[in-house]
């Protein structure tokens, strides 16, 4: 309705302007034609000759009558400088004074005016008749009545009305088509409803705890909210950036896996992606328009919408839970071992072999306490000591041997305990899996060198080793060399394979360290992992 009213108002305005312009042009054309007629008469020597005779009307009136008929003018008045008419369309007016302005003509100027005379309002041009000395001897006025000019305007009015009606019909059709298109695009929502809806959506995008990223088909990130900026390490941006201000996907500092997902536009459900310090769960789907839009049989696709959830804390809790499970398993195994040994001691005592029972208990205590005393004295982090002791008990239960060598002990202070547990726990788990899958002897070696400059962890196993061609792939989330339970990590229902080393890489990067894999330099012959972590003080200095 608003568009139709606009078209009606525009048609009325254009029609009025066209009519006024046609009228002005008609008056201007009439003035120019009358000027040409008056100038031609003034240039005729007959007028100057007759002006010097006692009765100029006798010669000029017939001449004026012929010119009026041939030039299609309503009147031609030739007069004396004192306004006395020598000719007129009505012979009764001859000899009477001319009605109108003549002062400019008396000064030798030609001018045109619209004024009322004996024949009514008219458009007239007055031209002076000068002799050889430049003196004004007569005046010539040629004109047409306003009624005659209006008849010419009326002839153009039909064209103006036809043009206005055509413009109204075309504008109405365009307005109807535009309204239909807008209704299909906006799904029938009006401007006020769209403004309200946009305000709601903007508030939601700013308040939700999930990151939202919208990418168009041209590879531009047209929108991302505050949570997405925090999760991806981007600068915060307006939810509705100005046209042309949206950054290109290639210009954003994204991880290669995330960049590949966003650029592909494929549908993704709960995929896990690692950034520098976060574990993100990503979902992505196409942004589809309403059906039948733009005359297409299929809905238009405007780009993709991706949502991001932070899973870092959940994975951290999972690592802590795995550590507690390891310790619990170790305690269960030790309880079983101690129960057997206690039964042995009781049986020896019942048999009266008290000395043998005492010797057996003493040796068992020495063996059990040896690793504990060594770790407690060497490693200044109790949680890390407990982890290593638990892994040692687990190795014993699985038929493997874990050898621990600790050099120094003052470089672990200030390092995040959760990250240390993630690094050592996953490296030892992989080493034990590799060792127990290989033929005997099944051994794992852990070497910890710590000092004021930092800490170095090396883990070696007697497994089959790692193919040099896949060294770079083992750090990727979801990649696994284990035959059983291989699956795409992060997919619903998939086994938790290919996760540990990816978390190790992330934790090492978070602590500013380095990580490497090579063939073992020890006699074990399996894989050899080395982690170098700088001391907290040196890391701050580097920053």
Backbone shape: rod-shaped
Query: Which ranges are low-confidence, i.e. pLDDT below 50, for 5 or more consecutive residues?
Result: 484-497
Strand proportion, as a percent range, falls in: 15-25%
Report the count of strand segments. 14
* Order of adjacent strands in the largest pleated sheet: 6-5-9-8-7
List the defining traits of the structure above.
single chain, 543 residues, alpha+beta, 5-stranded antiparallel β-sheet, 5-stranded mixed β-sheet, 14 helices, 14 strands, 48% helix, His_kinase_dom, two-component regulatory system, kinase, cell membrane
In short:
It catalyses: ATP + protein L-histidine = ADP + protein N-phospho-L-histidine. By secondary structure, the chain is of the alpha+beta class. The protein contains 14 helices and 14 strands.
What does this structure look like?
It is found in: Cell membrane. Keywords: ATP-binding, Cell membrane, Kinase, Membrane, Nucleotide-binding, Phosphoprotein, Transferase, Transmembrane, Transmembrane helix, Two-component regulatory system. Residues 197-239 form the PAS domain. With 543 residues, this protein is of the alpha+beta class. It has 14 helices and 14 strands. The chain has a 5-stranded antiparallel β-sheet with strand order 6-5-9-8-7, with helices on both faces. It has a 5-stranded mixed β-sheet with strand order 10-11-12-14-13. Helix 11 packs parallel to helix 12. The longest helix has 41 residues, at 2-42. The protein is rod-shaped. The two termini are 64 Å apart. Residues 484-497 have low confidence and may be disordered.
């Amino acid at each position: 309705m608003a568009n139709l009213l606009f078209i009606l108002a525009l048609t009325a305005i254009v029609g009025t302007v066209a009519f006024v312009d046609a009228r002005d042009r008609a008056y201007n054309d009439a003035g120019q034609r009358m000027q040409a007629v008056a100038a031609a008469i003034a240039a005729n020597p007959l007028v100057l000759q007759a002006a010097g005779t006692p009765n100029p009307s006798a010669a000029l009136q017939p001449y004026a009558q012929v010119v009026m008929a041939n030039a299609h003018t309503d009147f031609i008045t030739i007069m004396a400088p004192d306004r006395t008419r020598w000719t007129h369309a009505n012979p009764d007016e001859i000899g009477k004074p001319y009605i109108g302005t003549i002062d400019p003509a008396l000064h030798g100027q030609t001018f045109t005016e619209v004024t009322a005379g004996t024949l009514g309002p008219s458009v007239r041009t007055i031209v002076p008749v000068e002799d050889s000395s430049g003196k004004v001897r007569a005046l010539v006025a040629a004109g047409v009545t306003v009624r005659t000019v209006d008849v010419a305007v009326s002839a153009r009015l039909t064209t103006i009305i036809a043009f206005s009606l055509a413009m109204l019909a075309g504008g109405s059709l365009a307005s109807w088509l535009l309204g239909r298109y807008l209704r299909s695009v906006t799904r029938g929502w009006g401007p006020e409803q769209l403004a309200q809806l946009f305000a709601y959506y903007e508030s939601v995008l700013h308040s939700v705890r999930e990151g939202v990223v919208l990418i168009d088909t041209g590879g531009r990130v047209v929108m991302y909210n505050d949570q997405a900026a925090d999760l991806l390490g981007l600068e915060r941006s307006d939810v509705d950036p100005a046209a042309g201000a949206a950054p290109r996907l290639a210009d954003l500092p994204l991880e290669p896996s995330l960049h590949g997902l966003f650029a592909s536009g494929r549908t993704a459900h709960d995929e896990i992606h690692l950034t520098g310090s976060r574990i993100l769960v990503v979902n992505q789907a196409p942004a589809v328009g309403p059906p039948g839009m733009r005359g297409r049989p299929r809905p238009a696709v405007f780009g993709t919408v991706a949502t991001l959830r932070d899973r870092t804390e959940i994975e951290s809790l999972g690592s802590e839970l795995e550590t507690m499970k390891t310790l619990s398993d170790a305690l269960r195994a030790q309880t079983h071992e101690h129960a057997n040994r206690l039964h042995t001691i009781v049986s020896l005592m019942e048999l009266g072999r008290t000395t043998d029972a005492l010797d057996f208990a003493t040796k068992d205590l020495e063996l059990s306490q040896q690793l504990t005393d060594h770790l407690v004295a060497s490693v200044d982090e109790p949680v890390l000591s407990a982890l290593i002791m638990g892994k040692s008990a687990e190795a014993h239960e699985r038929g493997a041997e874990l050898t621990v060598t600790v050099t120094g002990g003052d470089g672990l202070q200030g390092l995040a305990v959760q990250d240390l547990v993630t690094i050592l726990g996953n490296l030892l788990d992989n080493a034990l899996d590799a060792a127990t899958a290989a033929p005997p002897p099944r051994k794992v070696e852990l070497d910890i060198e710590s000092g004021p400059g930092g800490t170095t962890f090396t883990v070696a196993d007697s497994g089959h080793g790692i193919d040099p061609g896949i060294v770079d792939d083992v750090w990727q989330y979801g990649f696994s060399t284990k035959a059983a339970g291989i699956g795409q990590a992060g997919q619903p229902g998939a086994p938790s394979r290919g996760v540990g080393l990816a978390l190790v890489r992330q934790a090492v990067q978070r602590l500013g360290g380095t990580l490497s894999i090579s063939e073992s330099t020890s006699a074990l012959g399996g894989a050899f992992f080395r982690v170098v972590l700088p001391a907290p003080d040196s890391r701050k200095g580097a920053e």
